[in-house]
Amino acid sequence: MSHNQRYFMRLSYRGASFHGWQSQPNAVSVQSAIELAMSRALRTPIKITGAGRTDTGVNARLMVAHFDLSQPITDKAALCRSLNAMVGPDIAIEGIYEVAPDAHARFDATSRTYHYYTHTGKSPFLYPLSWQEPASPLNFDMMNRAAAILLDIDDFTSFAKLHSDNKTNICNVTHAEWSTVDGDASRHAFVITADRFLRNMVRAVVGTLIEVGRGKMTLDQFKKVVEAHDRCAAGTSMPPQPLFLWDITYPFEYIY
């Protein structure tokens, strides 16, 4: 009697062409594009489960998904090449790996890291994958003092999309910091790591930190926003294109 083999897939994508990660009716998603290519390549209907759901326009330097097959893949590299020829220029399938039958791309992930990019001055090369900072310099020291507050809280309702289907708004943020990109003072990245994220959370956090950096919100006001547990108290949600799902960690090694 044959049993299903579970596989993890590593991939990356540019989100502009897609209505987010998750399959939905009448819209092209990253998940549906990959499932269509896999079903054609393997000549059997395939469903994949991703480590998370990125919103419309958000990119992933690294996404992990799992799927099951009743027959083993004899040449994983060849399958990757075949899929890459079919999924279009905005998705890259980087590797397929055998994992334990109960390994789960979403539920086994122990942390996820996002990067949000900004830059000073106008740049046709960085835009739209980086947000142009205002002419008046942002106070990144104050923004980092505000970001440090995120490490001491667990209820992120103030930064959650209204009326979303989250069962809980509790997240454990372990890192939240602004820094320059490769030592370039004209470019910045906000890096945030947590066990889980809510829909729109990073873009709402960044928008509120920008308010602090502009001098329009004090640290005390930022604390009050967090404690309000009210999305309407926080800053504007930032554009999705400069946001990247950057890394996902697991308690086991799946690349070998």
TrEMBL record:
<dbReference type="InterPro" id="IPR020097">
    <property type="entry name" value="PsdUridine_synth_TruA_a/b_dom"/>
</dbReference>
<comment type="subunit">
    <text>Homodimer.</text>
</comment>
<feature type="binding site">
    <location>
        <position position="114"/>
    </location>
    <ligand>
        <name>substrate</name>
    </ligand>
</feature>
<feature type="domain" description="Pseudouridine synthase I TruA alpha/beta">
    <location>
        <begin position="154"/>
        <end position="251"/>
    </location>
</feature>
<dbReference type="Pfam" id="PF01416">
    <property type="entry name" value="PseudoU_synth_1"/>
</dbReference>
<dbReference type="InterPro" id="IPR020103">
    <property type="entry name" value="PsdUridine_synth_cat_dom_sf"/>
</dbReference>
<dbReference type="InterPro" id="IPR020094">
    <property type="entry name" value="TruA/RsuA/RluB/E/F_N"/>
</dbReference>
<keyword id="KW-0413">Isomerase</keyword>
<dbReference type="GO" id="GO:0031119">
    <property type="term" value="P:tRNA pseudouridine synthesis"/>
</dbReference>
<dbReference type="GO" id="GO:0003723">
    <property type="term" value="F:RNA binding"/>
</dbReference>
<dbReference type="GO" id="GO:0160147">
    <property type="term" value="F:tRNA pseudouridine(38-40) synthase activity"/>
</dbReference>
<dbReference type="InterPro" id="IPR020095">
    <property type="entry name" value="PsdUridine_synth_TruA_C"/>
</dbReference>
<comment type="similarity">
    <text>Belongs to the tRNA pseudouridine synthase TruA family.</text>
</comment>
<keyword id="KW-0819">tRNA processing</keyword>
<comment type="function">
    <text>Formation of pseudouridine at positions 38, 39 and 40 in the anticodon stem and loop of transfer RNAs.</text>
</comment>
<feature type="active site" description="Nucleophile">
    <location>
        <position position="55"/>
    </location>
</feature>
<dbReference type="InterPro" id="IPR001406">
    <property type="entry name" value="PsdUridine_synth_TruA"/>
</dbReference>
<protein>
    <recommendedName>
        <fullName>tRNA pseudouridine synthase A</fullName>
        <ecNumber>5.4.99.12</ecNumber>
    </recommendedName>
</protein>
